[in-house]
User: Which sequence fits this backbone?
């Protein structure tokens, strides 16, 4: 569970109330809170801004919850940028580098970014910190070679982001953006292990699956592996409240990164103290609804109610 310091919540809520004139509840230190980063979209998939706390309804395992925290000013973000730099990326690595470098513009003061390279081995090219210039340098230094241990990379990054959460209870949003052009070919981590870790971590995972070469030709690899890869990428994004992208041209990469950046900058923080206070390690399904016609809410599918002695966070 996440222990939220009252001072941190109060500052976020005060900023939200000042901008939206929306009534909020102040929390004190030691309150157990389920915090949800919620994206609201209309029927055309466009982001909806200007909603109030009264527009949201939250259910946990079918039981309605009382929204206690609401903010429209996003908390600082820890962002991990994962790049598949295996041999199949050789013909398009420069375009990937350019698009990924442009994406670092999403990082604001107090945000942190890391860059992780996925080959047969996983390497952290840039550790999680506020040095955007260092992240760009790490991206530009990548080169294509080797196999793809995609599941290993996402799994290890989830573990690291959980480890990096502030011990003082400060609230930070966390997200992974992973780009891969192919199927996993060398991971030891299974799909089930990866999905279980995603449920425990509570980190948004945006996936970009690029299956064309530099000339726009679609890869025709083993269809079974391709279907599994697509399923995993979609499932990771859906479970964690993010999005899965399947661009059909390398030129579309910049637009995909722009869409992710826009979404990260326009999220609502919706929080509640669960009515079921038992920490039994069970998985709790979460459903957030917007009480306005034509508007949908997207957030993570649930969380694991970890025991108090656990270091996992919800």
Assistant:
């Amino acid at each position: 569970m996440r222990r939220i310091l009252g001072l941190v919540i109060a500052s976020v809520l005060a900023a939200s109330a000042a901008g939206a004139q929306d009534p909020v509840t102040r929390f004190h230190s030691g309150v157990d809170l389920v915090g949800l980063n919620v994206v609201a979209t209309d029927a055309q998939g466009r982001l909806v801004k200007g909603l109030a706390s009264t527009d949201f309804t939250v259910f946990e395992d079918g039981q309605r919850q009382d929204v206690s925290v609401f903010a429209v000013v996003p908390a600082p973000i820890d962002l991990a940028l994962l790049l598949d730099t295996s041999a199949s990326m050789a013909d398009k690595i420069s375009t990937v580098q350019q698009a990924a470098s442009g994406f670092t513009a999403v990082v604001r003061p107090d945000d942190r970014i890391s860059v992780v390279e996925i080959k047969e081995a996983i390497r952290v090219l840039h550790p999680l910190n506020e040095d955007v210039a260092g992240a760009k340098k790490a991206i530009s230094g990548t080169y294509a070679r080797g196999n793809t241990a995609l599941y290993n990379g996402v799994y290890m990054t989830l573990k690291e982001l959980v480890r990096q959460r502030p011990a003082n209870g400060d609230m930070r949003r966390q997200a992974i953006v992973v780009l891969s052009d192919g199927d996993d070919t060398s991971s030891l981590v299974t799909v089930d292990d990866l999905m279980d870790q995603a449920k425990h971590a509570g980190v948004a995972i945006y996936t970009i699956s690029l299956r064309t070469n530099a000339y726009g030709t679609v890869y025709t690899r083993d269809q079974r592996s391709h279907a599994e890869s697509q399923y995993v990428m979609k499932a990771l994004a859906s479970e964690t409240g993010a999005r899965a992208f399947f661009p059909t041209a390398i030129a579309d990469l910049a637009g995909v990164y722009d869409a992710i950046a826009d979404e990260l900058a326009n999220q609502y923080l919706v929080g509640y103290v669960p009515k079921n206070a038992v920490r039994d390690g069970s998985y709790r399904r979460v459903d957030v609804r917007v009480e306005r016609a034509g508007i949908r809410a997207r957030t993570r599918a649930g969380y694991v109610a970890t025991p108090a002695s656990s270091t996992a966070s919800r």
